Amino acid sequence: MKKLKYMLLMFIPLFFLLLTGCSKMSLSTTSKEYSADGLVAVVKGQATNYKKLTYTVAGKTKKVAVDDNHFAISVPVSTKNQNVRIKATNGDKVETKLVKVKKAKALQNYLTFAQTYNYTLLSMGQPTDQLQLISKDGMFTHTKTDGTKWYYNVQNNQLMGIATKFSYNDFKSKTGQKNFATDLMITSKLLGADGEKVLKDFAKQTKNASKNSTKTSMNQITSNGVNFNINLSAKEFYLYITKY
Prior knowledge:
The chain is α+β, with helices and mostly antiparallel strands. Helices cover 30% and strands 39% of the residues. It contains five helices and 16 strands. The strands form three sheets. Strands 10, 11, 12, 13, 14, 15 and 16 form a seven-stranded antiparallel sheet that branches. The protein has a five-stranded mixed sheet with strand order 2-9-8-4-5, with no helix packed on it. Strand 15 and strand 16 form a beta hairpin. The termini are far apart. The model is unreliable at 4-9 and 14-21 (pLDDT under 50).
């Protein structure tokens, strides 16, 4: 009996020590540097046993959403390198990670693009689809009268990238095809790309993709330094326009 008590006295502290070790707060990222993927760079990592998890970029702090101890932080890319500080806290315990989002090349000056875009639409009799001339740093959504949404990343008055999504159902109609083709042609030309070549390549790849239901992306289309990347999902496709 005495021997059993002795063993219990030795084992119980060790047991609680192991539990404490298992519940130790941890924070990690998959890399120290991240590059653009579409309009953003996605910082990925894991966090466990924290009470609060935040990230800070350019002096602005936001909460981090976590799913099963994993997180993904989307940071709009800029013409400058950006430091991202991730902070986990639990009582008086604090752990931080500092990662870098690499700079990327801008498409062009945003104001120049917006003014030219608005003038082009006015000349086509579309005065209600005007872009805002002044934009704060970050992402904004431009919804056209036909319902399509275009996403813009503007940093330091520079247009970093443009994205849109289009459902396959809308693309089946002649009106939907015409609206998309017109938007893509205008945007391409204003950015200095060959709009006709881009549309031709897009139509060719779309036709080939329809024959392969397992395909999730198309080959990158590049014209005069402007890149067009298309990702496919079950019901819609996503188009990203960048110079990186």
